[in-house]
Amino acid sequence: MSLSGRIILGYIKQMLLQMKHKLSPVKKVLGESYRLGDWVYFLHEVYRSDRSGDLPKGQIYRVNLEGTKLERLSEELVTDMAISDSKIVYSYYGNFLEGGGIERGGQYYLKSRNANGEDPKIITKEVEIFNLDAKDGWVYFTNYSDEEKLYRIRLDGSMLEKLSNEPFYY
């Protein structure tokens, strides 16, 4: 994690501690956090399985820079997220079931939504995606459906491209 990422993460934790008496506390932040305008975006861990190889999952939240407003922007169980072109880009697999637990055996998705959490759109559901990053209208990711090769796809779902023939980890 970069120095700026650690500073933002520390800032989020400090704000959430200060907000504890006003809002439900966020117990654990997953991965990177992102600042966009007057908001900081992050994943709040809500599910961790005991199964080997099962990644922790979170829901997308944002908090304003004053620390006075915390908003949940997604209900999906998100495994990774990034911000690009004022869009939240995220991968997820499964949702909570009404009786408890999560759905399994479903489809992996790469989605985007506006910075306010509205207008979710599926970018692709053809690949198992982890380790994503987004820049200049492209989403870069490790494709676990193709032996962990590096891929990219446009935010609109077009131009899916393999960028490496070897496994790629970052």
- Taking strands numbered 1, 2, ... along the chain, how are they ordered across the largest sheet? 1-2-3-4
Q: What are the secondary-structure elements, in order, as H or E?
A: HEEEEEEEEEEEE
Strand runs, count: 12
The major sheet is characterized as:
4 strands, antiparallel
Give the low-pLDDT segments: 20-24
| Helical stretch tally | 1
Q: Which term fits the overall shape? A: globular
Number of domains: 1
**Beta-strand content:** over 45%
Protein name: DUF5050 domain-containing protein
Pfam families: DUF5050 (PF16472)
InterPro entries: LRP1-like_beta_prop
Domain Prolow-density lipoprotein receptor-related protein 1-like beta-propeller: 35-166
Task: Walk me through what this model shows.
With 170 residues, this protein is mostly beta strands. It has one domain (3-131). It is 10% helix and 46% strand. It contains one helix and twelve strands, in the order αββββββββββββ. The strands form three sheets. Strands 1-2-3-4 form a four-stranded antiparallel β-sheet, with helices on one face. It has a four-stranded antiparallel β-sheet with strand order 5-6-7-8, with no helix packed on it. A four-stranded antiparallel β-sheet has the order 9-10-11-12, with no helix packed on it. Mean pLDDT is 77; it is low at 20-24.
